[in-house]
UniProtKB/TrEMBL annotation:
InterPro entries in the cross-refs: Bact_response_regulator (IPR050595), CheY-like_superfamily (IPR011006), Sig_transdc_resp-reg_receiver (IPR001789)
Name of the featured protein: Response regulator
Domain Response regulatory: 1-74, 84-200
GO biological process entries: phosphorelay signal transduction system
Family annotation (Pfam families): Response_reg
């Protein structure tokens, strides 16, 4: 019988949970597409997400919190079509986290380490989605959005903002409804991020921006 989900502790005898998670998620594994929720005293969210966990919860965990996490994990479905996502961020750690989080949701992940390269790649590659940081030197995320939305060739590409910047009223005015959502890096949840990504990649869906 094939399980729908794996709930995993890190502190296990013999092989620890991180090693088991890595083995489950490796290419070719029969269970590689199964969502894994880490529930452990050792709750390293960044490591868990990089290894492919849907969510990492710190023990002790309340019943409602656990049930909600399991329901979100079970609701995840593989992307129904070929998809290309462009990540524009100058922070290597964020790029690593976002790339790992996108595994299974996007068939191709393109990387741009600055705004100029991001605009060039978006125009050339025509991605299905742009995941964009706002705080970048020289050409900021705001500049990238303005360039994309004023170019007919890229104006319809949905954008998800993932940033550590506190979004002010003025920032929202600058974004002017051109971003589907804004994700706070300090409170990053792979589950919620993937929900946003899959919504953006779903064909024919009304992608209402903030």
């Amino acid at each position: 019988m094939q399980p729908r989900l794996i709930v995993l502790d890190v502190l296990l005898p013999g092989m620890d949970g991180w090693a088991l998670l890595s083995r489950v998620k490796q290419a070719g594994s029969a269970w590689s597409d199964l969502p894994v929720v880490i529930v452990s005293i050792v709750a390293d969210a960044r490591k868990g997400m990089l290894l492919g966990a849907a969510q990492v919860l710190q023990k002790p965990v309340g019943r409602d919190e656990l049930v909600a996490a399991l329901e979100r994990a079970c609701a995840h479905k593989p992307s129904p079509r070929e998809s290309k996502v462009l990540v524009v961020d100058d922070d290597p750690h964020s790029v690593e986290l976002l790339t790992a989080s996108l595994a299974g949701a996007a068939t191709t992940v393109l990387l741009a380490k600055d705004g100029v390269h991001g605009i060039e790649l978006a125009r050339r590659e025509q991605p299905d989605l742009v995941v964009l940081d706002l705080l970048m030197p020289e050409v900021s995320g705001f500049d990238v959005i303005e360039a994309l939305k004023t170019d007919a060739a890229t104006a319809s590409i949905p954008v998800i903002i993932v940033t550590s910047k506190d979004i002010t009223h003025e920032d929202r005015q600058r974004l002017d409804g051109h971003a589907m959502t804004v994700v706070d890096k300090s409170a990053f949840s792979r589950d919620r991020f993937l929900d946003d990504v899959r919504r953006a990649l779903r064909p024919g869906l009304n992608k209402e921006a903030l």
